[in-house]
């Protein structure tokens, strides 16, 4: 089952990557060295020739020193109170899925909630990630395999999972239909965004 084209707004990650890189006066080669990605892979992403995986975005965000949400929403002043209407969420198309913001990208506090919609077989990438804070996962629909520090948890609709996010983790849709999971990142140090912490060094775009 595939996602309908109209389920995600068109957000140009290629242009946003270029803006973030140039704001930091980083050459493509320098960003490649900092991120562990090849300069060719980064160039392909920046020119819109290929779409990065979720895990690749984490790695680029880490190298740039920004949260992963920096790719998803225009820069705005963070607020202490954030109200988001259902039809006004930030939707970002990802390879074989969609990232859907729930206000954390605009919030001053130490919590980042979002929903991931994943097609069959889609996931965070082969290599595990880790970051600061805690991670709460709730399976809204479908079947998700969540691996945490080598332990495998098969999540069905209604199942939940909570763990310290410094433990290496990754996920994928193992079902035959599109899956939806709610993820809430919390309790990370003030001023940090956990999406910017990612330890894998070899995942290709």
Helix content: 10-25%
Strand order of the largest sheet: 1-2-3-9-4-7
What count of structural domains? Answer: 1
The CATH architecture would be Sandwich
**What is the C-alpha radius of gyration, as a whole number of Å?**
16 Å
Tell me the CATH superfamily.
Jelly Rolls
Can you describe what's shown?
Helix content is 19%, strand content 26%. The chain is of the alpha+beta class. The protein has one domain: Jelly Rolls (Sandwich). The strands form 2 sheets. Strands 1-2-3-9-4-7 form a 6-stranded antiparallel sheet, with no helix packed on it. Strands 6-5-8 form a 3-stranded antiparallel sheet, with no helix packed on it. The longest helix is centred in the first third of the chain and has 11 residues.
Based on the model shown, name its key terms.
single chain, alpha+beta, 26% strand, globular, disordered N terminus
What can be said about this structure in brief?
The chain is α+β, with helices and mostly antiparallel strands. It has helices at 13-23, 28-35, 39-46, 54-64; strands spanning 91-94, 97-101, 111-118, 134-141, 144-148, 151-155, 160-164, 169-173, 179-186.
Secondary-structure map with pairings?
Layout: H1 13-23, H2 28-35, H3 39-46, H4 54-64, E1 91-94, E2 97-101, E3 111-118, E4 134-141, E5 144-148, E6 151-155, E7 160-164, E8 169-173, E9 179-186
Antiparallel strand pairs: 1-2, 2-3, 3-9, 4-7, 4-9, 5-6, 5-8
């Amino acid at each position: 089952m595939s996602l309908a084209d109209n389920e995600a707004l068109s957000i140009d990650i290629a242009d946003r990557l270029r803006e973030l890189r140039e704001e930091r006066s980083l050459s493509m080669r320098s960003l490649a060295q900092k991120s562990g990605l090849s300069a060719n892979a980064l160039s392909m992403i920046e020119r819109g020739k290929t779409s990065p995986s979720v895990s690749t975005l984490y790695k680029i965000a880490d190298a740039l020193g920004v949260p992963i949400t920096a790719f998803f929403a225009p820069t705005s002043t963070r607020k202490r109170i954030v109200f988001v209407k259902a039809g006004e969420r930030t939707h970002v198309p990802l390879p074989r899925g969609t990232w859907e913001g729930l206000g954390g990208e605009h919030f001053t506090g130490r919590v980042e909630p979002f929903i991931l919609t994943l097609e069959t077989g889609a996931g965070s990438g082969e290599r595990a990630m880790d970051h600061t804070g805690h991670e709460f996962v709730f399976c809204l629909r479908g079947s998700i395999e969540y691996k945490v520090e080598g332990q495998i948890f098969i999540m069905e609709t209604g199942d939940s999972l909570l763990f310290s996010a410094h433990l290496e983790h990754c996920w994928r849709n193992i079902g035959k239909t599109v899956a939806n999971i709610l993820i809430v990142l919390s309790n990370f140090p003030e001023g940090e965004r956990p999406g910017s912490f990612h330890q894998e060094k070899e995942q290709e775009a």
